[in-house]
Write a structure and sequence with these properties.
Blueprint: H1 4-15, H2 22-42, H3 52-62, E1 70-72, H4 79-89, H5 95-102, E2 105-109, H6 112-124, E3 131-134, E4 153-154, H7 160-167, H8 169-175
Parallel strand pairs: 1-2, 1-4, 2-3
Helix pairs in contact: 3-4, 7-8
Length: 179
């Protein structure tokens, strides 16, 4: 978008969105998801993003419930987490449920751009304070997590093949001993 007029028109359109209104925010979130899908399919950086149809299906099969926590330690743009939120949204029946919904997902993403896109994605899905960390989930052994840092469900598509080649099988086995 090199044309300054088009950029200005886009800014004006976004400025008209009432992000306090659930319907406006939800509609913008759907548009954002569509843009993410197009960006991801056009990417040439060797990254693989799980298609939304796959994340939606997997979450439907796992069937997380309000009150459970769901984590993704290779979160990318938060696809599994937003699929979880869409699934949980159907279960919200009270203010308490809505609070549980907002704190139900946790993610970690190592790369800066997918991290920023993931945070934005969660904000657009009504998570005002995303538990989304910019960091490397392989730096810590899973056995070192405290009970308060454990989750009911872990969903992710880790790039283990790439990591095995780069960091070596022994280091990967040390941080994820169950592999």
């Amino acid at each position: 978008m090199k044309d300054g007029i088009l950029i200005r028109q886009l800014v004006n359109l976004i400025d008209e969105i009432d992000f306090e209104d659930y319907t406006d925010r939800h509609a913008f979130g759907e548009i954002y998801e569509t843009l993410l899908k197009e960006l991801q399919s056009a990417g040439s950086s060797g990254e693989y993003y799980t298609p939304r149809a796959v994340t939606d299906f997997m979450i439907e099969m796992i069937n997380p419930r309000i009150g459970e926590t769901v984590a993704d330690f290779a979160a990318g743009t938060a696809g599994f987490l937003t699929s979880t939120l869409k699934h949980l949204d159907e279960q919200v029946e009270s203010v308490e449920d809505h609070e549980a919904y907002r704190s139900s997902v946790y993610g970690i993403e190592k790369k800066p751009m997918p991290y920023l896109l993931g945070v934005t994605n969660l904000l657009l899905h009504d998570v005002d304070q995303p538990q989304f960390i910019h960091g490397n989930s392989l730096e810590r052994n899973v056995r070192d997590f405290k009970d308060s840092e454990k989750f009911d469900v872990v969903t992710m598509k880790p790039a283990l093949r790439r990591h095995r080649a780069r960091i070596g099988q022994s280091e990967l086995s040390a941080s994820l001993p169950f592999l």
